[in-house]
Every structure is written in C-alpha cells, then in structure tokens.
Amino acid sequence: MQISSPNNTKERPDNLVERIYQQLKNDIFEFRLLPGDRFSEGAVAQRMEVSRTPVRQALYRLEREGYLEVYFRSGWQVRPFDFNYFEELYDVRIVLELAAVGRLCQLEAQSHPLLESLKATWLVAESDRLDDSKTVSALDERFHCALVEATGNGEMARLHYEITEKIRIIRRLDFTQEPRIAATYEEHGRILSAILQRRTDNAQQLLKAHIEVSKKEVRKITLHMLHVARQRAQLKSVNP
Fold it and tell me: For the whole model, what pTM was predicted?
C-alpha cells in the first residue's frame, strides 16, 4: 500500500478533511491503493502527518461513496472491484439517458442552452479537438449529465449524477487511449446531431451503442491496469 502525503500546512479543519479525502481518492483512482488493500486510520494519519480525526472523516466519506469498506476490528479496506455492480449501474444509466434523449427529441423549442453548449464542445473541426485525457474525460461526463439536465427533470438529473459519481473510478480510464478520445468525439457528434434533428430512434440507438462500447472498453482497461499495478506492488515488496 502506498499513500501520497499532502503538504503539511496549517489550514481550516474542513479544508484539511477535503485535502485528505481528495488525496486518498486520487490514490484509489491511480491504483496506488489497490482493491483489497487494508490499512488503519493511524497509518494514514502518520503518513500524512495529521491527526486521526480528519482522516476518519475523510475515510467515512469515501465509505459512503462506495470506495472503501470499514471493519471495526481490523481497519479499512479498499473495496474490491465488482464488475457486476458496475454493469448494473451502467444499465440504469442507459435507461435514464435513453429516456432523456426521447424527451429532448420532443422539445418544441428549436434550441436549448445546454444543447447549444454541447454543440460548441463536440461539433468542432478535428483540428480543434482536445487530446488531454483528463479534460476529455470531464467533458464526456458533462455531455451525458447535460443531456439529462436538459430535460428539466431535477430528480432524474440527481439520480443520474449519483450513478455518474459511482462509475467515475473506472469510466475515466476510457480516455487513456488516443483512439477512444477520437471515437468519443465522433460518437458524441452523431448523437447530438440526431437529437437536434429530432430523430428519436436513431439518437437512442447511437447513445446505447456508445455507452455499451465504453462499458466494454473500461472493463478491459481496468483489468489491465490492475494487473500492472499489482505487478509493481509485488516487485516493490521484493525490492523495497
């Protein structure tokens, strides 16, 4: 187990909790903390040179979000990957987004501010496309959230965002390969064009296919990255 250490500076308690939370989350996302790794609050506090109270608050926040599990007698554990769980979340996401696209294709207004914003991001010349994986990952997430938000159904948008948060740990890996970035621009462009042209069936088919491909890709990439991370951890334990 390897946990990065934040800057040891005086700061407000809530800011300190947020800093520890973000650092631990990054360690999980970057596989410095591997699924199944166990650790104690004391070990984290000592490594980060902070007290146990803000560490505990950060850990419970990560536990509520599904990244950690707590064992009251043996500390904390990074939650093992359960691909069946993630696939169920993807299935619910597809249902919500298909419903959203159906509503958007029935809009009476000629345009919608959120759709206009998406056009400016995705319907661009190839030379104007971004290639930074983290930036494109954030924009991809925003694309799908905006489709649901544009329906005007706040509860639907809330449920969708909760699912988005839960799958972010693996979904962001879809953009670690350049071909997937290019494919995302192409696929988002076709989905958006179909919505703007009120071609409901076509837009829904394109959207479903887009998410299904992404789901398969992130599973494959996640398994590969976990394998590489575990090999590194084994080598480090042999040659500390």
Answer: 0.80
**pLDDT digits 0-9 by tens, 112-126:** 899 999 999 999 999
Domain range for 158 is: 83-226
φ, ψ of residue 138 in degrees (nearest 5):
-65, -40
Question: Are 203 and 153 contained in the same domain?
Answer: yes
Contact 203/101 with Cβ under 8 angstroms? yes
Axis crossing angle, helix 113-122 with helix 178-196, rounded to the nearest 10 = 140
Which domain-ending residue is among 80, 104, 130?
A: 80
pLDDT of residue 6: 54
CATH number of domain containing 205: 1.20.120.530
The residue type found at 153 is N
- CA distance linking residue 219 with residue 21, whole number of Å: 25
Residue 87, in any domain of the structure: yes
**How many whole angstroms separate alpha carbon 46 and alpha carbon 22?**
17
- 3-class secondary-structure state, position 107: coil
How many domains does the chain divide into? 2
Q: Rounded to whole angstroms, how far apart are CA atoms 66 and 52?
A: 21
